[in-house]
Amino acid sequence: MRDSMREESMRTSENVNSSHRGLSACDYVLIIISSLLVLVTFPLTIWFCIKMVNEYERAVIFRLGRIVSGRAKGPGIFFVLPCTDTMRKMDLRTISFQIPPQEILTRDSVTVSVDAVVYYRIVEPTMAVVSVENADASTKLLAMTTLRNALGIKTLSEILTDREEMADRMENILLEATRPWGIRVERVELKDVRLPLELQRAMAAEAEATREARAKVAAAEGEVQASRALREAAQVISEAPSALQLRYLQTLNQIAAESNSTIVFPLPMELLSAFSR
């Protein structure tokens, strides 16, 4: 398919380059008559013969249906014959347009609405005039069709996670398709992916359940770590009974600092055992 596009582009370019050749006798007569008319009415026709093209524009001039010199003219000022020449200006600046939201059925049978932005510019003004009737409208229609075809073979998760890959794939397809038209697609961006309301609610419920499960797992892990810390503390206290008494004193100090109250606590068992003897 790409080879056929390149061959078609080469044939069109050859036709354009050779279109100014082979003028008939009638064509020469009309050109001479038009030139004489310009000379006779020179002070008035000078305003119709001189054309100006800006730096970012190119002019494609047709003389009796054939492109003059086989290429676009500009920038600057040039001369045209008012009776035999027609001119079309082409803007070479980068043009951007937004693809309207397209309803797309994904591979997993989910309907989504996707819109995108395409940036392109005309690199061959002559091809853009000769090869296609309306380069701008054709590019927009092709972009909408490419968007539906490129995303229709993907699942919903792939569209949501691989947006850059989808945009690059669309850019390559449009670049190859618009090459015979003298247009170069520079960038494609997927702007927004809208899901049905029911699907949004289902995904929100799934995400909430996932968060709750993670919270429960974290709480369980915290309980396990706390149990292990208590077990280690119990082992330390069992090895040193005096540590328990120190813990008693620390707890009493904290309680006394928080509120004024009377506290009754038992005497150490070691002291009572000395009197029992």
Automatic annotation (TrEMBL):
<dbReference type="Pfam" id="PF01145">
    <property type="entry name" value="Band_7"/>
</dbReference>
<dbReference type="InterPro" id="IPR043202">
    <property type="entry name" value="Band-7_stomatin-like"/>
</dbReference>
<dbReference type="GO" id="GO:0005886">
    <property type="term" value="C:plasma membrane"/>
</dbReference>
<keyword id="KW-0812">Transmembrane</keyword>
<comment type="similarity">
    <text>Belongs to the band 7/mec-2 family.</text>
</comment>
<feature type="transmembrane region" description="Helical">
    <location>
        <begin position="28"/>
        <end position="50"/>
    </location>
</feature>
<feature type="domain" description="Band 7">
    <location>
        <begin position="48"/>
        <end position="207"/>
    </location>
</feature>
<dbReference type="InterPro" id="IPR036013">
    <property type="entry name" value="Band_7/SPFH_dom_sf"/>
</dbReference>
<dbReference type="InterPro" id="IPR001107">
    <property type="entry name" value="Band_7"/>
</dbReference>
<keyword id="KW-1133">Transmembrane helix</keyword>
<keyword id="KW-0472">Membrane</keyword>
<dbReference type="InterPro" id="IPR001972">
    <property type="entry name" value="Stomatin_HflK_fam"/>
</dbReference>
<protein>
    <submittedName>
        <fullName>Zgc:112408</fullName>
    </submittedName>
</protein>
